Fold each of these.
Amino acid sequence: MSANTSFPPDFLWGVATSAYQIEGRRDLAGESIWDEFTRRPGAIEGGGTGARACESFDNPERDIAHLKELGVNTYRFSVGWSRIMPDGHTPNQAALDHYDRFVDRLGEEGITPLVTLNHWDMPEALMSLRGPFDTDEPGRQVAGAKPRPARGGWLSRDCVGAFAKHTEAVAGRLGDRVNTWVTQCEPWVVQLLGYQLGIHAPGIADLARSVVAGHHFMLGHGAAADVLHGLNPNAQVGTTPSLYPCYPATDTPEDRAAAWGSDGYVNRWFLDPQFGKGYPADMRAIWEAVLRRQSVPFALDDVILPGDEDAIAHRADFIGVNFYTRRVLAAVPTGPDGLPTDGRDFPWAVVGPQGDVSRNDDSWEVVPSALTDLLLRLHNDYNAPRLIITENGGLYGDGLTHDGRVHDNRRIAYLRTHLQAILDARAQGARVDGYMCWSLLDNFEWAMGYRPRFGLYHHDYATNTRTLKDSGIFYAEVTRTNKIPPTDPPITPYG
Ligand code: FCB
């Protein structure tokens, strides 16, 4: 068998979901920042909430049946933080019982759990935490809901301890059967959308303070990893950063510098400290300049305290790679402080790809070669012990057609090309151990509500019915053969 046509027999084949996006039954959970956020006028496209979602909480057996039909050996799901710690501090045994039973059921079916501790549904109670960086000022509104004042949640260092308590509760209950853990999901997205732009919960829009939230979020990873390794030194622990490879729009030194700068903001800021390199100096200088320009009463040294970088470093046993698309960047004019003079926040412009490129239904460029580049880069720059693709998938809105099926051939093409990209990276040495497709089923896509569909199963929200898409049939063939099938599932012609 040639190295670049098939996956090894022990490859982790899985799908990914998160609690708030699929579970529903928010009446049985504590208030989460997403419950609060979804009530705010304008926050969610179409006005959706997590109240019902895909009704997975009430019917976990249906999800398990899907996992079996897909033939996956791994399931990445998250435990609802606000469900387990309704008041932010005290574990709810009934919620732990639910996940306890679920993990048992996965075990009975021979499916390995890969558990995310924080996939964004933080208890709203933790928004009352306070810290020295708080302000009463509402942030600048970018889109959607009116921002709330920048205080609470990850802006407070006390959130780190609260997250460690949640981790203790979950690992104490599930740690005898769960070995692979994701502490924090997508630090950059939480920092950017949750605290800088206010378009995700908790809806804070404060550029300078977003770096505070991002740092505490990374300290949360360190603290949770210590809890997990303390309970089980062999536990496999990582984060799932949203990694966007950054490419220059042209080959000029200016555009190349812009791409490298953006890489510092999006990727290196969260990867370097995990791998013992500390926060990257170039991006540190940019953040310091941003804080000065914003005239906030603190500097980066007040936020990143002595010992903090050590508390984040060398705890990752794998990198969970969430990959959807890339960024293409161009230079912008800058002043003596290194910041742009044209009103932008950072010294680069996201210009996107030139020309007619393949795109998903939300115009994100489909660029599998960037995944190969990314995996090789993680292998080379971080000597990543293990790489697991923890999210990757296609946003395509195909619905049921004449034959009652969903012929989502664009999602199949997306999977086909991205799986090939992984084989290419493996052939060049990258240690990629697994692939978790986002997502098992269509679900609540955060601020975009229920419009975007990423699932291998179609979920009809009006009737709560599910349909296996052609991409699911294709993926089941992948998991069965460890190969990329040469042909797509057949379609019976209409008429
Ligand atoms: C990622 C999130 C995941 C889902 C996908 C499409 O940013 O982690 O919950 O929304 O994007």
Amino acid sequence: MIEKALEVLQRYFGYTHFRDGQQKVIGSLLQGSDTIAIMPTGAGKSLAYQIPALLFKGTTLVISPLISLMKDQVDALQQYGVPATFINSSLTLSEVRSRVQKAVQGQYKLLYIAPERLESDSFRGLLQSLQVSFMAIDEAHCVSQWGHDFRPSYLHLGPFLKSLPRKPLIGAFTATATEEVQTDVVRLLGLTKPNIFVTGFDRPNLTFSTLRGENKKEFVLEYIKNHEDQPGIIYAGTRKEVDNLNNFLVRSGIKAGKYHAGLSDADRQKSQEDFLFDKITVMVATNAFGMGIDKSNVRYVIHYTMPKNMEAYYQEAGRAGRDGEPGDCILLFSPQDVVLQRYLIEQTVFHPERKMNELKKLQGMVDYCHTPRCLRKTILEYFGENDIPEECGNCSSCNDEGEVMDITLEAQKVFSCIYRMRERFGIGLVAEVLKGSRKAKIRELRFDELSTHGIMHDTALQEIKDLINYFVAEGYLQLSNGEYPVVKLLPNAVSVLKGEGRVSRKISPKTSRQESDKD
Ligand code: ADP
Ligand code: ZN
């Protein structure tokens, strides 16, 4: 089967071989299994349904939410000699009728339609006469309220599929799908025992690093000077931060520009062009920068502030090294970042469930900042890829030459303090009790009388908090969901308390922080 697919790939598209994920996805569809393919943007999802469409009898329906994209795809297919067309709101009624008629006569291998079309009874009627054996649903996460891009019109897909005389084979494609979204896709589209593939997320040419406790401004300046003339992007958390950092860099003689939503259209346009045409080498920006810009030789992306979740981080960091040459992705973080992101989530108008979900994703990001494990593995597992090697050899964890220290005693101190505080408080208060604070709240709760009160008075408060975060990232502790996350003991921690397990930590320049976080 796959040989035939390869032949089609070569004959129509002129490529010599499939990419990693494509082959699995195409194989699954060709053997007739409903398939969910989760592949990042640019990984080649389109071919993964276009090739089966060319091999199957009859016409394949492709559901696609973006009118402009639809036209591009169809134009590209026609250039390759593949008979394809689209139907969306840009067409007149008679044009729609004519295209459907041609489809019924078998003149197209692929028919792209916008999901809104399915809301119309008469359009659905027209489609009844079409023999659909395969239906590809692009941006399938739009069906789920959990997704970042829920589209009510996608909810018509389920009933539409049910209304067909024979249920077609379904391929659902998306770049992002958490467990919740996957469950929704399966349920709302009525998929039967689908094969789910998560693939293509790795970007081997990128080096990932996390750094904390650095003087961020000095670090950035130093880094830029050491990478003279190499284009790079620095993402900061707020407009004000962008303005400040950009001023600082310009004053320090760096060819930097800035981009955020507070600038006029003209200023933004100019900034973007200056960067594209190498008039400036460094772009300091908020997350408003990047959508749709296509600069392939960006050599580094530095995050000056921790983003709100791994999806956002990976998308932004992924703008480095698009040309396949090495790229550096550095995340600078400080505890205040978490406070800011948490605050921003609280300020949204999302319903409570959605907020909880956002907070959970934020925790994934915080874990990434604290994990001693391979960062690439952490990223890929976050997105759901399996079978990732323990070490990539190309991230700050793998390259960390630090010493492994036994920290069982510290762990026991922390865990027993949490236990004595009845697992009802957050990281901040636990750390303060360990440090020995006598502030009013602690006295009121009589935590100053606990045997663990002040048991870590020699350690800096921030270091105690870091340590607790480390235990969270390492799966000893859990942070409850919600506005005020509470630290709880996981079974691993209980074993350590019973003296049944030991805890170690790599101590390196990265973890032994300098006290210079402030500007
Ligand atoms: P996605 O839909 O996942 O964002 P696309 O389908 O648009 O990605 O593909 C991204 C790019 O990769 C396109 O330019 C496409 O032609 C190219 N591409 C896809 N598959 C292959 C392949 N097997 N070999 C070479 N290039 C490919
Ligand atoms: Zn690694």
